[in-house]
Amino acid sequence: MIAVAVLFKDREIILPEVAALTVGIFTFREDKWIQRPFHIFLLPSITAILGFGINFLPILFSLKLLIVLIGMLLTLRLFKSQLAPALATGLLPIVTNAHSFLFLFAIFAFVLVLYCLIKVLKIKPIEDSVPIIYISHNRWLIAICVIWFLIAYFLDYVYYSAIPPVIVIAFESLNHPSLKLNVRLKRILALTGASLIGCLTIQYLDNLILAGLIDLLLVAVLLKVMNLRLPPAFAMVLLPMIMPKETILHLTLATFLMSTYFMIGIYIIQKKKYPNPIDL
């Protein structure tokens, strides 16, 4: 993917969430993703079209984010899907201000390849996997996001309103009320660490392919040390490659603040709503 972006001299072809999907499917074997393999092609394609189209609207950046977020959540609800990375592919064209149709072609091509590989390699959920039970927590996610969008807007940090991997993790966390606090804190550190790695490599290495290879290897080591299964960390580490240059300087701090806000906020909500949680 990075090599293709270098070949075409267009960084919009670099799709961080494709890295997360690939690792989640082939390394971590995420059951909720593999159970409906066609959704891996369909849903990111739909959300990418939504985000790409909304990005052309002459409205406030924060409003674009809110509209696409609502549209994506409705899409996931319609298909009764928990494919959280589909949220990132919708946010990405707005966050990176994508205008090249190569972005859409790249999304279609890469997720189609993933779908075909699942079929060809006959990758299936584990035998004792739990069937997908869709439970909507959309109103909570929208409420938390709106508050964060407003904070970022009034502090004049609008470009940090939506860091896609953080929102992906937030969506997943809302579906796991039994997730322990220490795991949530480790997720904050993992995302922040991945962001720092990505920012450092893109600042000190001119070769995108080499930077990408180092990024992915270091994140794999980081997750191994922390004993975490966190595919969005692989998206987080590649995100600095396509972010506007002026945002990279504070991206790691923004990642830490945003992930802390979402993880702790969701934890507090769930403790009140599910005093004795059962993983959903």
UniProtKB/TrEMBL annotation:
Arranged from A to Z, the UniProt key words for this protein are: Membrane, Transmembrane, Transmembrane helix
Q: Which domain of life is it from?
A: Bacteria
Instruction: Kindly list the residue ranges recorded as spanning the membrane.
Output: 41-74, 94-118, 187-204, 210-227, 248-269
> What is the name of the protein in this document?
HPP family protein
- Look up and give the organism this protein is from: Chishuiella changwenlii
